[in-house]
Write a structure and sequence with these properties.
444 residues, alpha/beta, pyruvate-formate lyase- activating enzyme, OB fold (Dihydrolipoamide Acetyltransferase, E2P), 3 domains, five-stranded mixed beta barrel, globular
Amino acid sequence: MEKFSTSGPIKEKNGVFITTYGCQMNVNDTERMFSLLEMSNYTPVTSADQASLIKINSCSVREKPVHKVHSEVGRYRKLKEMNPNLKIGVAGCVAQQEKKRLIADIPLLDFVVGTDAIDQLPELVNKLDREKQVSARFEYQKPYQIETLIRNPGVSTFVNITKGCDNFCTFCVVPFTRGRERSRKAQELIQDIQKLVDRGVKEVTLLGQNVNSYKSECGADFADLLRLVATETNIQRIRYTTSHPKDFNQKLVDIMQEHREKVCEYIHLPVQSGNSQVLDRMNRNYTREEYIQKVKMIERAIPGVVLSTDIIVGFPGETDEQFEDTLSLLDEVSYESIYAFKYSPRPFTKAAQFTDQVDEQIKSERLNRLFAKHDEIARKLCKKYEGQTLEVLVEEVNAEGRAFGRSTQNKVVHFNGTNALVGQTVAVKVIEAFPQTMRGELKN
Ligand code: 5AD
Ligand code: SF4
């Protein structure tokens, strides 16, 4: 699992240091925690030894992270001995699930805060001075309608539109860690996005576990929201993730096409497996054939659309033949990138109880075969970009004049440029294309 270190510049007496594991949702939660703590007189610092508050923002989607939390807290033991006022806490999915156990098992820990209780963090931190170990209440207390909290949004940023998930895919812990799905109000999102535009943001990615089941209080569905963001804000580019194939519909692709000058032609559409029986046991609510039909619908409506997907190998009971169906799906759907994982049993989930768990070694072999096959496909697919001119939104330029940005197809493109280009959309001719990145040159 990825580990991001998110921190700010200055050493201060109320320094806060947060390490973040996991998905974009968690990275966003860290941003939110920093923003809330800044309002409570904390300043982000770049290393744990500068901090008076250390937080581990954990993730449990694909791993057993409790050990990781134990060992990370252990690494701060010395700091705690030197500074008894140092507070150490755990946030995120693991905190949500393992609250009591963590507090009981790790004496060094001062607090835990679940994913639903983030907004109570300032309150909780104040309380820490009075009580030894506290944990925020886990019940969802306020409607989810708080302004998007982002400290330094940069050129491109993520905006949560929903929280939680009601789908209960049998492998997935998210419905247990993040609770029932809640959608933010469309009007509030429009206001937030326009405020981000006023702060210089050019691109937003609308974020949710299943954006396609978004439903605003006013009745707007996800396609309506996309149209509203395109027409009622001055944002230049819109992306979104993650989509659930069962809820992906014609209306959405029509609106994407109608607003193609703003909505990027890139869709992450997790399939999880290429076999309908496995999909059924995963409770995905679509078959292989239905998935392929949706892909065809998307490709018809959005010329040049780029697709990526998530795949799980070694789901309980997955036979060799069923895994072959996942391999063969790669021949039918031209994914330019895939994110593939070995199935890992998660607490509370149905699949963890299935008795036909697959051997670890078989899972590893399947994962290797899948990556090897996709690698070959991706190498061929990316060649079509060589010689093409892409519209690149410039995100960063370093001191040596090496610039990078993303194309509307979500391709990372490197080229030579000046700092003045940051935030601009420029035409870049691709010289050399690889599956993950491209090298190009600026066109005049
Ligand atoms: N084991 C392996 N992969 C998982 N994912 C979610 N839960 C599990 C699990 N228990 C993967 C899915 C999902 C992505 C975010 O993580 O592919 O789409
Ligand atoms: Fe998990 Fe399925 Fe919800 Fe995605 S849609 S968060 S995989 S339960």
